[in-house]
Backbone:
């Protein structure tokens, strides 16, 4: 038979759980913010790392909320944000797998002076990725 926890312990558990939720939200917001800003290569990978860290923080936050029996209304939003963190970290960190291709693309774009030159850079990236994936 389970014994009831004292109210002050429950309140402290809830407060700690909400601290994890805030850390998750701040980390995810920073990761998304860095993903939106056009940073030079390889800094866009920071977005993926932060979203991956947010994913870990979010899972811990969800477990802490459940253990503290708190935030029932918050859990669906937290799960949706976890899915977002997972997708963003996967898409951003995929660039790390194709480091050479994105590095060449970044150098090409830096030297491109016209929109047409940038289009050529994009086409070269698409061709390089297609070849690497065996589709070209």
Residues:
């Amino acid at each position: 038979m389970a014994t009831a926890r004292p109210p002050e312990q429950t309140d402290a558990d809830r407060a700690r759980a909400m601290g994890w939720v805030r850390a998750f939200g701040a980390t995810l917001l920073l990761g998304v913010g860095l993903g939106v800003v056009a940073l030079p290569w390889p800094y866009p990978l920071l977005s993926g790392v932060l979203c991956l860290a947010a994913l870990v923080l979010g899972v811990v936050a969800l477990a802490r909320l459940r253990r503290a029996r708190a935030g029932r209304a918050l859990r669906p939003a937290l799960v949706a944000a976890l899915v977002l963190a997972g997708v963003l970290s996967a898409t951003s960190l995929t660039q790390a797998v194709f480091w050479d291709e994105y590095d060449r693309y970044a150098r090409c774009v830096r030297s491109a002076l016209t929109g047409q030159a940038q289009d050529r850079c994009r086409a070269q990236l698409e061709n390089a990725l297609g070849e690497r994936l065996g589709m070209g």
